[in-house]
Amino acid sequence: MIMNPIPTQSSEIRVTPIPRMTQGGRWRVEAMRSYTSDLLLWFTRGQGRITVSGRTRGFGAHNAVFIPAGTMHGFEITSQVFGTAAFFPRSLNLAFPQEPLHLRIRDAAPQGDLTLILENLQRELDGDRPKKERAAENYAGLFSVWLDRAKLQYPQNERKSEKADQLVARYSTMIEEQFRSGRTVSEYAQALGITPTHLSRICNKSCGRSASALLADRILYEARRLLRETKLPVQQVAAQLGFTSAAYFSRAFQNHTGKTPSDFRRGA
Predict the structure, then answer these.
(1) Which residues form a coiled coil (predicted)?
(2) Quick one: how far is CA 121 from the chain centroid?
(3) With the C-alpha atoms ordered 216, 217, 218, 222, is the resulting torsion angle positive or negative?
(4) What digits encode the pLDDT tens for the residues 65-100?
(5) According to DSSP H, which parts of the chain are helical?
(6) Less Cβ around it within 10 Å: N or C end of the chain?
(7) What is the set of domains in the chain, with CATH numbers?
(8) What is each CA distance from 234 to 130, 167, 180, 252, in whole angstroms?
(9) What does the mean pLDDT of the chain come to?
């Protein structure tokens, strides 16, 4: 069965429990990927680590993570992690931040406000009342106001961004824009004006992964998504992701996942 619980492209507001995002495999949230919609992750229970734009932080209960559309990210999920994910299409033209935010909401009042907004939003989306789309858009607008207030109340007290952090963020953006091109880490490093060794060193410091691991993770997420959600032949999947041959793609896929592309697709 072809499964697509969370589309990478959507023109609709969507709200879903965070555990449901893993339908089809934990790789759906743990591997590096992005969406064309702005994303809110509202963690209400559990803890783990989340990587956004090449930087890894810990998250816990009552953490709100806002991830703009097109931003590469992934996060750990266990049976203890619970919360809500909300997807807001760019067509809403809301005044959302252009940079990621990680807010630790310590007080009960704003925690309750956000939970209520998301519950009301979900109720409108699931119901059949007239003008539900308009109502959902208004709740999305209320969320944008909540986010602006939370930014003022809970500023991100983090160390000043260093040049290395900026380079990793730029590398993350370049991967997201060009991971289908077949470019190597050396070519990305050259475009950034640094050596591959230095790029890998700063990636390890920022997120605990090498530059090649970040790149491979993004490519393999897309490979698995295409194998699960489309009927494209393996050869076409390989070509779309910049591999020079289907055989090379199959070897790389099996080395990282333990399965051939065909076996992975049959397991859907």
Answers:
(1) none
(2) 21
(3) positive
(4) 999 999 999 999 999 999 999 999 999 999 999 999
(5) 27-30, 108-126, 132-153, 163-178, 185-192, 196-207, 211-229, 234-240, 246-257, 261-266
(6) N
(7) 14-153 (2.60.120.280), 163-266 (1.10.10.60)
(8) 44, 34, 15, 13
(9) 94
